[in-house]
Each structure stands twice: as C-alpha cells, then as structure tokens.
Amino acid sequence: MTVTPERADPSSHVLAVPVGDEQMCEMVSQFLAGGLAAGERVSYFDDDTADAVLARLCDDGVDVTEPLRTGQFQLVPQEFTRAALLAPMDELGGVLEHNMQSAIDDGWNGLRFTGQMNHGLTREGGQRLDEYDQVLDDAMRGRPVHGLCIYDHARYPDDLIATMRRLHAVEIESPPVYDDSLLRITESAPDRIRLAGEVDHVNRPLMRRVIGRYLDRIARGDVDNDVLSVDLASLRFCDVASAVSVVHAAEELPVTLRLRLDNVRPGIARLLDRCGAAFAPQLEMKVRDRTALCTADALALAAGGAG
C-alpha cells in the first residue's frame, strides 16, 4: 500500500517586533515585494504608515504602479483598516476567507497581507488582539495565505508583545549593524551596507566608525573587492558635518580603494558636492532617479485600474 504524505501547510503566519519605523518599513517592504514577485495579491492595511511603506518600496526599487492598477497590490485605506479592527470578532474569519478566495478567483497565486493593528487597542474594554490573532490563524491554515503581524514597542505595551511572541511559532528578524531608531545601518554583503533614516550630531560618530570598519576590512584584503558600496536610497537627512565626514573618509583612502555612494537622494547629493565630494578621487556617487508615490496617488491609481 502506498502512503501519500500529508501536504505541507501552504500558509505562513509570522511575527515581527521592529525596534523602530525604519526597521518596520524595511521588513514590510521585503514581505510585500516577495509576494509581488511570487504572483500573489498583496494587501497593506494602512493606519497612517502607508506613505513610509510606499517610500521604502520605492527605495528598494519596487515599482508598485502596475500592481496597483491591476489589483495585485491593494492599499487598504485607514478608515477601512480601523473599521475591520473594531468589527465583531465572529465576522473576521468570513471576511478573510472572502478576500482569500477573491485573490484566487482573480488569478493570483495566493494572498499576502500585513499592516498596522494598533487601533484595535482603543476598542472599549480593550481589544483582545490575542483572540483576533487566533481567528486569523484558523482562517489562514491550509490556504495559500501569508500574514505578517507587526508589534513594535512604540505602539504596543510590552506585556502584549510578550503574549504575541508566545502565540506565533515564527518571529522574523533582521539584525542591523547599528540601529538607534533614527538611523539604521544594515549589511547586505561584506562590501555593501545600507543607511536608512537620518544622520546628525548624535549618531555621526557611529556612522563614521561603521564605514571605517568596513573600509578597513577591504584594505586588509578580507573582502575580495576594492570598493565599499553604501546604499543611501533610504537616507532622508544628513547634516553638513556628517557629509564632510563621509568625504574625508574617502579622501583618506589609499589610491587602490574606493567608496561608492549608491542611490543618493538629490538633496543629499547636492550637500555632498558642496562639501567637496567632486574633489575626492576615491569617492563615487550615483544619484537616484525615482520618486515614491504618496498614499493619495496610490489610491487614485488603484481606483483608476478598478474602473
């Protein structure tokens, strides 16, 4: 007799506890981009964070214009997100099942969703987000659905976060090289790092030390490359002293090594030029040429596509 092995559950229901909004946007962008690449319908439930998420998707080179038009990417407005969180618990499973079936009927390979749930905390008597989460889990199981639940310390109490960590079998993490909630530095390769957020007098010394550490590795030959690439797509602000510090770091390099700044925002590129970047032979700079959608424009694109 041949025994047919039990099929693996096609769903996933994971937790993330970002330390700040930079990490939150990084994780959400990766999650949504993965769904778009897999041919899934992806939904983001907005509660005043959609602009930041759309900006991060743009920073990551993810063009959501066509997915918004075709309905593959659904940006759920804040009022609908809040209404869903305050709806009776026994309606939630049916709503999710409807959305899952709709994604399949429309030709997508599954459904992927995430968003902000903190408005549920304002519910009279206190929202039982643990019960809410269990309803989600039951409705998703056995279906091609992937959910990312975000519980950050800025929006949720520590005791609730501890409860949610116990309820989720998988917690995804993205450890940084440095993160002070204002500036986040991550490594994508031994010779490539990324800065996201803002650099000023508070974190400037740490930023310079991190860049110096990676340059030292290259100079020692620990990395099979003579260029350190620093992705600045998500760096929104840099003060003058920090820009000067980066230029000086390049000027101090041996002639065989280079520091390359990728995806630099135009405003920061102009600042670096004023601080002498053009006169540092070991410094290369590539200015980004893409602009993020705002929430209103994204919703208008989606409405136009639906029409």
UniProtKB/TrEMBL annotation:
InterPro entries: MEDS_domain (IPR025847), STAS_dom (IPR002645), STAS_dom_sf (IPR036513). It comes from the Bacteria. It holds the Pfam family MEDS. Residues 193-276 form the STAS domain. This is MEDS domain-containing protein. It comes from Pseudonocardia nematodicida. The lineage of its organism: Bacteria, Bacillati, Actinomycetota, Actinomycetes, Pseudonocardiales.
